[in-house]
Specification:
Length: 235
């Protein structure tokens, strides 16, 4: 089975190609270019290096959120376009679940956190000790203190994700020695994990037409518009 994995939900733009259970090419980009500039050339390069064309793909896995509103849309639109043009089924992958795959086999709780801005994180809890992520708590967009208070007090907690840039000190202060932080090579979502999860979720296939982003909050522009309308109504 030929699988293309795509992730643009966070700061990294990434894609990977898996052929018959093996990752044969992977691209991870974190530079000055926007995801809209970077992801399609990366996909083209990955397919060419793997000896594939879009119409030889059997499945596309793509992270659909939570994450950056713009980033999620870019990745989803790329997958939708390829799927629709070449009649390829898709699998929607939760970004936090893909991030949890970085701690495959860890015996404690994995707590992926993505910076959601406004002093909040996109967060969830998974048990990775038996292999693929077993969800313990649903995705949320909440402040870091509230999330940390939800975590069990008797287990080690492994954290990964770009939320560490902003909230590492708070985690150390509130969790202490129970906190384990992923190293730099396991910090961000890897498109290889998207491929593996997509293959593991074949019963969740959808089409490009029915592939949609997962948003936990309304986009900032919509929130600002609603707030403006509310203020005008009260005047």
């Amino acid at each position: 089975m030929n699988i293309l994995g795509i992730d643009t939900s966070g700061p990294v733009a990434a894609c990977a190609v898996q052929i018959d259970g093996r990752i044969v090419h992977s691209i991870q980009l974190l530079h000055g270019k926007t995801h809209s500039e970077a992801i399609m050339p990366a996909i083209d390069s990955a397919l060419e290096a793997s000896g594939l064309t879009p119409n030889s793909l059997d499945l596309i896995g793509v992270t659909v959120g939570p994450g950056s509103f713009t980033g999620v849309r870019i990745g989803v639109c790329a997958a939708k376009g390829l799927a629709h043009a070449n009649d390829i089924p898709c699998v929607a992958i939760d970004s936090l679940e893909a991030l949890a795959m970085n701690l495959y086999g860890f015996a404690g709780i994995v707590a992926p956190i993505l910076d959601a801005r406004r002093n909040q994180v996109y967060c969830a809890q998974f048990d990775m000790s038996t292999g693929f992520p077993v969800r313990i708590a649903e995705d949320q967009a909440i402040d870091i203190e509230t999330f940390l208070a939800q975590l069990p007090f008797d287990r080690k907690i492994a954290f990964c994700g770009d939320g560490l840039d902003t909230f590492r000190a708070s985690i150390v202060q509130l969790i202490g020695e129970r906190a384990i932080f992923a190293p730099s090579n396991l910090r961000d979502i890897h498109a290889e994990a998207v491929c593996a999860l997509a293959e593991n979720k074949l019963d969740m296939q959808t089409t490009g037409k029915t592939l949609f982003p997962l948003y936990l909050r309304k986009p900032q522009a919509e929130r600002e518009r609603n707030a403006r309308v509310q203020r005008e109504t009260l005047q």
